[in-house]
Amino acid sequence: MSTPDPIPQARPKDELDRFLRRVRRRWLAGQLLRNLSIDLIACASLLALLLGVDRTVFPGFVTWAFAGIWTASWLAASVMRTLLWGRLDRNGAAVLADRRLALKERVSSVEHLRSRDRPELQEVCGLIEGDAARAIHGVPVAEKFPITLPRFTAWILIPAAACAALAVWLPVFDLLGYGGRKQAHAREEKVVEEQNKKLDDKLKELAKKAEEKQLPDAQKVLELLAQKLEPNPANVEKKEGSEAQEAQKANAELRKDALVQMSRREDAIKKGLEDQKFEPLKEGLKALQNIDLKKAEITKKLQEALKNGDFQKAKDALSDLKADLNKLSQKKPEDLTADEKARLDKLSEELSKLAKDSKALAKLSRSLNQGSQSLGKQGMSSKDFKDGLESLENAAQELDALSSLSDEMDMLDEALEVVQRSKEKLAKLQSCPECGTPYCPDCGKPQCGCKPSQKPGGT
Q: How many Å apart are CA 217 and CA 272, to the nearest integer?
């Protein structure tokens, strides 16, 4: 005589609830694997198709980043689809348990009676719950409800192998020329960006140098020029026409815009150099080229520096003359020796001549002339010495101002040279390296018969 199955220790209701939760979780995991398998097969198949298009029509479209994002998107969609529509409710789990375990609707009957919520059925429901709990007690859920990959998952190897073959072995055909246009435009952007960066760095370096030399006007101009120039909005608007025409126009506009921006910088520097404050300096530098150094003795270093346009060196030479004159001023005029008086006369004569040679620099000429008159007086007094020293001090101050102005002009000249050199380099990249004929401004193609290997963009 057989003994009845022992009643589980836990309440029948709790036993059934735990069982159904495990069934639902394992069902959800199985559905997730099934959906992932289906979606990965579709994902790999479409990716193989895109790779084929990429290799034949639109090279460079499918990248590693694109493939990663594409696959991740499919995986995320599969997970979301499973969570939203792949869940199994309690009734479904009960029916599944009855079918898998051949329980003759014990579990599903319990769920049905619970949903009716009728007092007269509670006793019957309790009896069926106990019977169902005894039936499922000790059932190996993992064995009866396994989580396994579907058999068709192996089909994913076919599109995956196709993707690998297309990516590794299939050469690029570029039937429509899309890849060539894209690469040409990328080269154009790279060359233009490199030239602009070199120019910006050099202008910033010059601006820093102007700041160190305390040249605020030059610093302001150079900092303004060093600011990043934005592309012309008209050049980035969408244009009508074929894709090839748009790419050609984009390359031409890119080159044109870069050259226009450099020309604007060049014009801005030229405008700064045409400032009225530089005119006396320019005229003075031209006049100082005519200084005759043959008869210069005492002021030879001063005149050489002025002839070379080196106002800082001229200031240093004038400081040496002032130091010598200051030593002589310590003596009384009547105590000066004949050689010292002759030296003062010679100094007065040379300063007078230098004042005439530097008439274009009015303030400097006036100071030198006043010094010459004070030092060349007959019966020179201590006051004349003092006036002469004061005049030379004024001349030194004027030389200091001229030195700053000259440095500022030199700084702008250097910036202009840098801009023009960058502009020439960029222009050469748009010309045939063999005959120098410019490329077409519209399509960027060579207009000569040389067929140079160097294409627009420097490659």
A: 9
In terms of residue numbers, what domain contains 366? 279-405
State pLDDT tens for residues 256-308. 677 777 777 778 777 777 777 777 777 777 877 877 777 777 778 887 888 88
What's the token pair of residue 310?
A: 């080196």
Q: What percent of the chain has pLDDT over 90?
A: 13
50 and 123 both lie in a single domain: yes
Cα distance between residue 38 and residue 153, in whole Å: 7
What pTM does this model have?
0.44
CA 16, CA 125: separation in Å to the nearest integer? 13
| Inter-CA distances, 142 with 23, 30, 61, 381, Å | 9, 12, 46, 122
- Number of domains comprising the chain: 3
DSSP line for 189-245: HHHHHHHHHHHHHHHHHHHHHHHHTT-HHHHHHHHHHHSPPPPPGGGSS---S-HHH
CB atoms within 10 A of CB 306: 28
Q: Do 138 and 182 lie in a common domain?
A: no
* Window from 124-138, 300-314, 378-392 with minimum mean pLDDT: 124-138
Specify whether 273 is located in the same domain as 298. no
Q: Tell me if 435 is assigned to some domain.
A: no
Partner residues linked to 431 by β-bridges: 438
